[in-house]
Amino acid sequence: MLKKLVVFVLLYLVFMVTLFPANVAISWLTLPKNISLSGVSGSVWAGKIAQANIDGRQLDNLSWQLLPAQLLKGQAAAEIIIGNRASAVNGKAWLGYSAAGLALKDVRIEAPLKWIIGNTRLPFRAEAQGDITVMLAGFKQGTPWCEALDGKAFASDLQVNNQFGKYPLGELQVAMSCTDGQVQVAMDEATNGLGISGTAVVGDKMQLVLDAKIRETDTMPSDLKKALSFLGRSDDMGYYPLKFNGRIPGL
User: Fold this and answer.
1) Less Cβ crowding at N or C end of the chain, within 10 Å?
2) How far apart (Å, rounded) are the C-alpha atoms in residues 51 and 229?
3) Residues 6+ apart with CB under 8 A from 85
C-alpha cells in the first residue's frame, strides 16, 4: 500500500509540473531589472516566450522543452529554440544543469554583431557591424570558465570603423577550445583574408592574453595596411606582432 502511495504522489507531482502554467511560475520570480518577458504561454514542461528583452537586446519566440530522462542522470535539461531561420536572432541549444554546473551541446546561434555589442562602448569610438554565427559541439562549465569547450565562430560582412579609418574585414573564422579552465580562441590566416594567425585566451576576471601576428595581404583594407607600421617592426617573414595582456577593454 505504501509503495502504491509513493508512486501515486510521484506521478501526481510530475503531472502538476507538466501542466503548471509557465506564466504563473514566471510571475513568482523576481527578475533582474534588465530583463523583461512578455507573451509567456505553455507549461513549465514545454512553454514559449513571445518576446524577451535582456539589456536592450530583444529575443522573439523563445521556446523550451524539458527532457525528463535527464533527471535520471542527476541533471535538469531542456532543448531551447530561439526564433526561426528568418529571424534576425535565431538559434537552438541543448542546455543542462547539474551539481557540476552548466553544460551545453548542439548549439547554433546567429545574430547581428550590433545586437551582440548592444550598448557596450568599443575602444577608439569604434562602430562594428556584420553577422555572427556561433556553433558549439559541447561546453562544460569549469573554473574559471570551462572544463571542456569545442566550438567555432564565423563572421560575415564584418565592417569596423573608428577614428583611424574604415576596415571592411569581410569573412573571419575562429576555433574555440578550453585550456586550463580558460577560453582559447584561435585564428589561422588560411580562414581569413587579413593575414592574422594566433590565439587569444580569456582568463579569470576577463583577463585577455593575445599572442598573434599579422602580415599584409592583397585583400587587406588599405587603412589597415597603413596602420601596420604602428605595431612595430615586421620579422623576416613580413609578420607584425599582435600582443596584449590585460583586462578586456570595455568590460
Assistant:
1) N
2) 47
3) none
| 136 φ, ψ (degrees, to nearest 5) | -120, 120
Question: Are the beta carbons of 162 and 126 closer than 8 angstroms?
Answer: yes
Alpha-carbon gap, residue 145 to 140, rounded angstroms: 9
- pTM value > 0.85: yes
Q: Is 14 helix (H, G, I), strand (E, B) or coil?
A: helix
CA 150 – CA 173 distance, rounded (Å): 14
Q: Where are the domains of the chain?
A: 1-99, 100-251
* Distance from C-alpha of 58 to C-alpha of 204, rounded to nearest angstrom: 28
CA within 13 Å, CB half, 137: 9
Question: Locate cell 514566471: which residue?
Answer: 26
Backbone φ and ψ for 115, nearest 5 degrees, come out as -65, -40
Q: How far apart are CA 93 and CA 64, in angstroms?
A: 10
Positive or negative, the Cα torsion across 210, 145, 147, 143? positive
**Number of Cβ atoms within 10 Å of the Cβ of 106:** 13
Tell me the C-alpha distance between 199 and 107, whole Å.
22
pLDDT tens digit sequence for 76-101: 899 999 998 888 999 999 999 999 99
